[in-house]
C-alpha cells in the first residue's frame, strides 16, 4: 500500500453494498446511507492527499442475494476498495440483529488491518453499529475517530412512541435501548461528528446527555453531477441520448404508462422506502381526496423493491398493504403507478428527468427527514420539490429556494402545495432553474470530501501531504498503541508469572533489559492463573514493565497495553454454553470440593481446592457431562481446580490473540512451569519449559516444538528465546 498520504477506513456494516448498481430501496437497510458511503469513498479517493480509502462492510454469502456480496475485496476505484468482513454468520440479516456480532466484526477487522501492515490514520463510522466498531478500533490503534450518524435512536424512539407503538415492541424490534446507549458512548468518544444539517445538532444530538459537547461539522452530502444533470440537456445535446439511455427511457415510460389512463398529464413522483415514517399514506390521502390534483396530474410512487409483499418485513408489509388498500379506497386506478422495482444507478436519474419534462413535481412527504438526498438529486435534474418542513429539507430550501415546504402530517397542506407548483408555470420554472443552479453550488462531493480531508488533517500528527511537498520531511513521533504495536512487531513472547518469570530476580531483570533492547521486533505478555488484580499486585511487587498483553484468570480474560483494555471479543467467544450457576449447583454434593476465596472467582472461572485421589477428578467430569455442562477442567499444583468455559484456556486465549494479530506460529513463544501451562506449551506456538518445572510436564519431553531448558525461571526464558532465534 502506498505510504504517502492518508489511509482512511469508512465503516457501514448493515445493508447490501456493492460497487456496481447498488440495490437501493431493496429493504429498510439499503437506503440513502448505502449511496452516501459509496459516493463519499470514491470522492475521498480522488483527493490528492489521500493514499487509500477502504469502505468496510459485512460479508454476506446468501443464495437470496447477489454473489458479489460474498467477495472479500472489491476494487471500486483506483485507490478505493470495498472490504467485506465476516460476522454473524453468512446470511443477510437486518441491522437490528447485528448487535451481538459486532465484537466478531472488530476482531476480524483487526486481523485484516494487521495483514495490511499499515494501520489506518482515521476510522470513520456511519450509523450507530459502525460507529461502535470504528470507536473500538480507533481506541485499539490510538487513531482519531469520526462519526456520521445518518439517523439516531432517541428521536426514532420518540417518533415511534408518538405513532402508538409500545416501548417493549419498539425495543424488541429495533433494539433501541442498546442503540441509544451506544450512541451516548460514541458522542463521548468521537473526535469529530459530521452532520448534514444544523437541525441534526439541535433536534437529534441535542436529545443526548453527551450530545451537547461534541465537536460538530455540518457537511451536506453531494451528488454525482455527471449522472444527475438537467432534463433539458438531453434536448440540447443529442449525444447524451445514447442507445442505453433510450432503452432506459422506453422501459420507464412503458412501465408508467401501463398504470395511467392519460399518460400525457404531468405527474407527481415519490421515491422512498416502504417505511411508515415516509408517510406514503399521507401522500395518498392528499392526492386521493383532491379532485383538482387527480384531474390535472398522475401519481407515481416507487416504494422500494418488492416481489412478494407477504415475505417482506412486518413494517414494510404493513405500509405496502395499506398503500394498495388506499388505492382502492380513493379509486386511484388509472391514475396511480406503483412499479415493483427500479435501478437507482440508471433508471432513477432518468425518472427525475422524465418527470421534469412532463412538468411534474417531486414530493417527499416523510414525517421526519434527517437530510433528503432524493431532494437534491431531483432538483439537480430540474424537478421542483414539495417536501416535509422537518430536518434537512429546510436547509436545502434555504440554500436553493427550489420548491415548497409543508407540514407532512397535514394531507391538505401536501395537496395544496403540489397543486400550487403544478398550476404556476412561471413558479415551476423558477424552482426548476434555482434547483439546477444551487445544487451545483452547495451539494458537490468534491467540496464535501475536501472539507472532510481538512478535518482529518487537523486530527492527525503533523505530516507532509502530497499537496504540500517542498522537500524531505518526516512525521512527528506519536505514541504507539497496543494495536499498532502488535500489528508491527515480528515476534511475541507469552510467559507464565509464578515460578517461570518470577523466582530469580537477576535473570528476570536481565530478561526485561533484553525485551526493551529488542522491543522493535519482540512484544511480550503474561499468561497466568491470577486475576487481573493479583497480576497487577505481582507486577508492582516485582517492578514489571507493562506487558503488551495480559492473559489472566487461566485464559478467561485478555487485556492489552497500558490502559488494560479488556478484549470483549474473547469474552463473547468463550461465553457460548457457559452456565456458571448450573455448574456450582451440580457440584454442591461433592464434599471434597472446597470453594476458593472470592478473589479466585471470576465471571468465566469457577475455582475450587481439590486433593486428587480415588479418581475424584473423573467423577467431577462425569457429573458435569451427565448434566450436559460443557466445560474445560484445569487441575494444577496438586490442589487447584479451575472450571472454565469449554472454549477457554491459556492456550486457546493465546491462539485467539495470535490469530487476531496475524502472528505465524513460528513467531510465538510460550513459557511455563506447571500443568496449568500445559495446554499453551503443547499448543500451536513454540513451547518453552523452564528448568524448575513441575513433574506434571515431564510427559511432554521429546514432543515437537517444545524445548526443555536446563536453566530455571527467567534464565530458562532467555535460553528459549535464543534457542528459537527470537534474540541473538
Tally of DSSP β-strands: 26
Count the DSSP helices.
Answer: 28
Summed over residues and divided by their number, the pLDDT gives a mean of 92
What's the architecture of the largest domain, going by CATH?
3-Layer(aba) Sandwich
If you compute it from the alpha carbons, what radius of gyration comes out, rounded to the nearest whole angstrom?
31 Å
Q: Helical amount among residues, as a percent range? A: 40-55%
Shape: elongated
Termini Cα gap: 31 Å
Low-confidence stretches: 471-478
> How much of the sequence is in beta strands?
15-25%
Per the CATH scheme, the topology name of the largest domain is: Rossmann fold
Q: CATH class of the largest domain, anyone?
A: Alpha Beta
Strand order across the largest sheet: 3-4-2-1-5-6-7-8
User: What is the domain total for the residues?
Assistant: 3
Structural class from helices and strands? alpha/beta
CATH homologous superfamily identity of the largest domain: Glycogen Phosphorylase B
**Main sheet attributes: strand count, strand direction, barrel closure:** 8 strands, mixed
Brief sketch in words of this structure:
The protein has 728 residues and is of the alpha/beta class. The chain folds into three domains: 6-152 and 189-218, Glycogen Phosphorylase B (Rossmann fold); 232-442, 3-Layer(aba) Sandwich (Rossmann fold), CATH 3.40.50.2000; 482-576 and 647-723, HAD superfamily/HAD-like (Rossmann fold).
Relevant terms:
eight-stranded mixed sheet, Rossmann fold, 40% helix, 728 residues, elongated, alpha/beta, 3 domains
Amino acid at each position: 500500500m502506498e505510504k504517502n498520504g492518508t489511509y482512511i477506513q469508512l465503516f457501514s456494516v448493515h445493508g447490501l453494498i456493492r460497487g456496481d448498481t447498488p440495490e437501493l430501496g431493496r429493504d429498510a437497510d439499503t437506503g440513502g446511507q448505502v449511496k452516501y458511503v459509496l459516493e463519499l469513498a470514491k470522492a475521498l479517493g480522488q483527493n490528492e492527499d489521500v493514499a487509500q480509502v477502504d469502505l468496510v462492510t459485512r460479508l454476506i454469502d446468501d443464495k437470496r442475494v447477489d454473489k458479489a456480496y460474498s467477495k472479500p475485496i472489491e476494487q471500486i476505484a483506483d485507490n478505493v476498495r470495498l472490504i467485506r468482513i465476516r460476522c454473524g454468520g453468512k446470511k443477510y440479516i437486518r441491522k437490528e440483529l447485528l448487535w451481538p456480532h459486532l465484537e466478531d466484526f472488530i476482531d476480524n477487522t483487526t486481523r485484516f488491518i494487521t495483514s495490511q501492515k499499515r494501520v489506518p490514520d482515521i476510522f470513520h463510522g456511519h450509523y450507530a453499529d459502525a460507529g461502535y466498531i470504528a470507536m473500538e478500533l480507533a481506541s485499539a490503534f490510538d487513531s482519531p475517530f469520526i462519526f456520521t450518524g445518518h439517523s439516531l435512536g432517541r428521536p426514532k424512539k420518540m417518533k415511534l412512541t408518538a405513532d402508538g407503538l409500545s416501548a417493549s415492541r419498539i425495543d424488541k424490534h429495533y433494539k433501541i435501548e442498546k442503540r441509544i446507549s451506544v450512541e451516548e458512548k460514541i458522542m463521548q468518544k468521537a473526535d469529530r461528528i459530521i452532520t448534514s444539517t444544523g437541525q441534526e445538532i439541535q433536534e437529534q444530538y441535542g436529545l443526548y446527555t453527551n450530545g451537547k459537547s461534541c465537536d460538530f461539522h455540518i457537511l451536506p452530502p453531494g451528488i454525482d453531477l455527471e449522472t444527475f444533470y438537467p432534463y433539458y440537456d438531453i434536448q440540447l445535446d443529442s449525444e447524451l441520448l445514447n442507445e442505453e439511455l433510450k432503452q432506459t427511457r422506453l422501459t420507464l415510460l412503458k412501465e408508467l404508462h401501463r398504470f395511467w389512463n392519460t399518460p400525457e398529464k404531468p405527474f407527481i413522483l415519490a421515491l422512498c422506502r416502504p417505511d411508515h415514517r415516509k408517510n406514503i399514506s399521507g401522500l395518498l390521502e392528499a392526492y386521493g381526496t383532491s379532485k383538482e390534483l387527480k384531474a390535472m396530474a398522475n401519481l407515481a410512487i416507487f416504494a422500494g423493491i418488492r416481489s412478494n409483499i407477504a415475505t417482506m418485513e412486518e413494517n414494510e408489509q404493513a405500509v405496502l398493504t395499506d398503500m394498495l388498500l388506499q388505492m382502492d379506497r380513493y379509486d386511484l386506478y388509472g391514475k396511480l403507478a406503483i412499479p415493483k422495482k427500479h435501478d437507482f444507478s440508471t433508471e432513477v436519474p432518468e425518472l427525475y428527468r422524465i418527470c421534469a419534462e412532463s412538468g411534474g413535481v417531486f414530493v417527499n412527504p416523510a414525517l421526519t427527514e434527517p437530510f433528503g438526498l432524493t431532494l437534491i438529486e431531483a432538483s439537480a435534474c430540474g424537478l421542483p420539490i414539495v417536501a416535509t418542513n422537518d430536518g434537512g429539507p429546510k436547509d436545502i430550501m434555504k440554500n436553493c429556494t427550489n420548491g415548497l415546504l409543508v407540514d407532512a402530517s397535514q394531507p391538505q397542506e401536501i395537496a395544496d402545495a403540489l397543486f400550487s407548483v403544478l398550476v404556476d408555470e412561471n413558479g415551476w420554472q423558477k424552482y426548476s432553474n434555482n434547483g439546477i443552479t444551487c445544487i451545483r453550488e452547495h451539494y458537490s462531493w468534491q467540496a464535501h470530501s475536501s472539507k472532510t480531508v481538512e478535518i482529518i488533517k487537523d486530527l492527525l500528527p503533523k505530516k507532509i501531504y502530497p499537496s504540500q511537498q517542498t522537500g524531505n520531511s518526516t512525521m512527528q513521533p506519536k505514541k504507539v498503541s497496543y494495536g499498532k504495536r502488535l500489528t508491527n512487531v515480528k515476534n511475541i513472547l507469552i510467559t507464565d508469572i509464578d515460578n517461570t518469570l518470577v523466582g530469580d530476580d537477576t535473570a528476570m531483570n536481565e530478561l526485561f533489559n533484553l525485551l526493551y533492547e529488542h522491543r522493535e521486533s519482540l512484544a511480550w505478555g503474561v499468561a497466568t492463573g491470577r486475576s487481573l488484580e493479583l497480576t497487577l499486585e505481582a507486577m508492582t511487587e516485582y517492578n514489571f514493565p507493562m506487558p503488551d498483553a495480559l492473559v489472566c484468570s487461566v485464559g478467561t480474560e485478555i487485556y492489552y497495553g497500558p490502559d488494560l483494555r479488556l478484549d470483549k471479543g474473547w469474552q463473547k467467544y468463550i461465553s457460548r454454553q457457559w452456565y456458571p450457576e448450573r455448574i456450582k449447583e451440580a457440584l454442591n454434593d461433592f464434599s471434597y470440593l472446597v470453594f476458593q476465596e472470592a478473589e479466585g472467582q471470576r465471571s468465566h472461572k469457577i475455582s475450587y481446592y481439590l486433593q486428587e485421589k480415588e479418581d475424584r477428578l473423573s467423577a467431577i467430569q462425569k457429573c458435569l457431562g451427565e448434566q450436559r455442562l460443557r466445560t474445560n477442567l484445569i487441575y494444577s499444583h496438586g490442589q487447584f481446580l479451575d472450571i472454565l468455559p469449554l472454549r477457554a484456556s491459556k492456550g486457546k486465549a493465546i491462539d485467539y490473540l495470535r490469530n487476531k494479530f496475524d502472528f505465524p506460529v513460528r513467531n510465538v513463544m510460550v513459557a511455563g512451569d506447571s500443568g496449568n501451562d500445559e495446554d499453551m506449551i503443547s499448543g500451536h506456538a513454540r513451547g518453552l519449559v523452564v528448568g524448575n518445572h513441575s513433574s506434571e510436564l515431564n510427559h511432554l519431553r521429546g514432543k515437537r516444538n517444545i524445548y526443555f531448558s536446563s536453566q530455571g525461571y527467567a534464565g530458562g526464558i532467555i535460553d528459549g528465546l535464543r534457542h528459537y532465534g527470537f534474540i541473538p
